Amino acid sequence: MNIRAQITVDGNEAAAYVAHQVNEVIAIYPITPSSPMGEWADQWSSTGQPNIWGSVPSVIEMQSEGGAAGAVHGALQAGTLTTTFTSSQGLLLMIPNMYKIAGELTPTVFHIAARAIAGQGLSIFGDHQDVMAVRATGFALLASHSVQAVMDMALIAQAAALESRIPFGHFFDGFRTSHEVAKIEQLTTDDMRAMIDDELVRAHRARSLNPDQPVLRGTAQNPDVYFQARETVNKFYDDCPAIVQGAMNRFAALTGRQYRLFDYFGADDAERVIVLMGSSALAAEECVEALAARGEKVGVVNVHLFRPFAAKVFVDTLPRTVKSIAVLDRTKEPGSAGEPLYMDVISALVETGTFGAHRPPSAAPKRGTSEQSAAPEASPLCASYFESMPRVIGGRYGLASKEFTPAMVAAVFAELEKTEPRNHFVVGINDDLTHRSLDVDPAFTTEDPEAVRAVFYGLGADGTVGANKNSIKIIGEDTDNYAQGYFVYDSKKSGAMTISHLRFGRKPIRASYLIQQASFVACHQFSFLERVDVLHLAEPGAVFLLNSPFGPAEVWEHLPRAAQEQIIAKKLRFYVIDGYRVAKENGMGGRINTVMQTCFFALSGALPREEAIAAIKQAIAKTYGKRGDAIVQKNYAAVDQALANLHPVEVPAYATSEIERQPFAPPEAPEFVQRVLAPMMAGEGDSLPVSALPIDGTYPTGTARWEKRNLAQDIPVWEEEICIQCGKCVMVCPHAVIRAKVCAPELLAGAPPALKSSAARWKDREHLRYLLQVAPEDCTSCGLCVQVCPAKSKTEVKKKAINMAPQAPLREQERENWDFFLDLPEFDRQALALHNVKDIQLLQPLFEFPGACAGCGETPYIKLLTQLFGDRAVIANATGCSSIYGGNLPTTPYTVNRDGRGPAWSNSLFEDNAEFGLGMRVSLDKQAEYARELVRRFSAQIGDELARSLLNADQSTEAGIEAQRRWVADLQWKLGSEPDPELRDLKALAGALVAKSVWMVGGDGWAYDIGYGGLDHVFASGRNVNVLVLDTEVYSNTGGQMSKSTPRAAVAKFAAAGKHAAKKDLAMMAMTYGTVYVAHVALGANDTHTLKSFLEAEAYPGPSMIIAYSHCIAHGYDLVHGLEQQKAAVQTAYWPLFRYNPALAAAGRNPFQLDSRPASLPLEKYVYNEGRYTMLAQSAPEAAALLLTEAQQDVVTRWKLYEHWANMPDPAPIGPPSNGPEPISALKSALNSPADGAQFQGAQK
Amino acid sequence: MIDLSTYYLGRKLASPLVASSSPLCKDLANLRKMEEAGAGAVVLHSLFEEQILLESESLDRFLNAGTDSYPESASYFPDLATYDIGPRAYLEHIRAAKKALKIPVIASLNGATLGGWVRYAGQMEDAGADALELNIYFLPASFDISGAQIEDDYCELMHAVKSHVRIPVAVKLGPFFTSVPHLACRLEREGAGALVLFNRFYQPDFDLETLEATPNLKLSTSDELRLRLHAVALLSSRLELDLAITGGVHTGDDAVKGILAGAHVVMLTSALLKHGIPHLREVMTGLVRWMEQHEYDSVSQMRGAMNAGAVAEPEVFQRANYLKVLGSYDLRGAGAFTGRS
Question: How far is CA A636 from CA A61, A627, A1077, B200, in A?
Answer without folding.
Answer: 39, 14, 57, 38
